[in-house]
């Protein structure tokens, strides 16, 4: 089964994957918002999503990360740039990558910073498309500019959600 899910909210996507697994569908792969599922025992896996440290789309120490996860009986199921989809068998007990507040804050800061990096790149593309739409004034250029602007707003919304999550976690540490 293939489902479409394109979100800029790690927690929402993670909950979605775990809900599908509780219904007997295990994630088998991901590409550009298309998630492939295969049948499994209901609740067989617990899914987590992580954003690896790094710059832009380049992850730092990916091989060490995979080795560490393997040692913890965690499967690195899929990688998309710095996004990593993880799963562990539910029978092995609870699974949460980040258990302390400080590491959760650092995760959401990495996500927010990645979103802001993408906002910068997308802003340049969006500006270029808007200028083309003004100059050429075709349906295609107007639609492209509108799509890029909507994508920019969606990414900004994701960054704002991360900021709120960081603030919420920081309140817990006070």
Please explain how this structure is put together.
The chain is α+β, with helices and mostly antiparallel strands and 174 residues long. The protein is 54% helix and 23% strand. The strands form 3 sheets. The protein has a 3-stranded antiparallel β-sheet. A 3-stranded antiparallel β-sheet has the order 4-8-7. The termini are far apart.
Name the overall outline. globular
Name the helix and strand elements from N-terminus to C-terminus, one letter apiece.
EHEEEEEHEEHH
* Gap from first CA to last CA: 45 Å
| Average predicted local confidence, pLDDT | 89
Catalogue the unreliable spans: none
Radius of gyration: 18 Å
**Oligomeric grouping of the chains:** single chain
Approximate strand percentage: 15-25%
Helix vs. strand class: alpha+beta
Q: Could you tell me the number of beta strands?
A: 8
Percentage of residues in helical conformation:
40-55%
**Biggest β-sheet, characterized?**
3 strands, antiparallel
Total helical segments: 4
Please give the order of strands in the largest beta sheet: 1-3-2
Short description:
With 174 residues, this protein is α+β, with helices and mostly antiparallel strands.
Layout of helices and strands:
Blueprint: E1 2-4, H1 10-22, E2 25-31, E3 34-39, E4 45-51, E5 54-55, E6 58-59, H2 62-71, E7 75-80, E8 83-89, H3 101-136, H4 139-173
Antiparallel strand pairs: 1-3, 2-3, 4-8, 5-6, 7-8
Helix pairs in contact: 3-4
């Amino acid at each position: 089964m293939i489902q479409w899910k394109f979100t800029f909210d790690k927690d929402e996507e993670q909950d979605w994957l775990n809900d599908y697994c509780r219904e007997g569908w295990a994630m088998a792969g991901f590409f550009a918002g298309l998630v492939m599922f295969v049948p499994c025992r209901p609740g067989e896996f617990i899914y987590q999503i992580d954003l690896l440290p790094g710059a832009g789309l380049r992850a730092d120490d990916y091989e060490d990360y995979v080795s560490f996860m393997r040692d913890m009986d965690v499967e690195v199921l899929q990688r998309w740039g710095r996004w990593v989809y993880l799963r562990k068998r539910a029978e092995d007990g609870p699974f949460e990558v980040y258990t302390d507040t400080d590491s959760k804050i650092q995760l959401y800061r990495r996500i927010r910073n990645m979103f802001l990096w993408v906002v910068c790149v997308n802003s340049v593309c969006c500006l270029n498309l808007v200028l083309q739409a003004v100059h050429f004034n075709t349906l295609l250029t107007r639609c492209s500019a509108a799509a890029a602007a909507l994508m920019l707003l969606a990414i900004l919304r994701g960054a704002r959600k991360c900021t709120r999550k960081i603030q919420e976690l920081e309140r817990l540490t006070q």
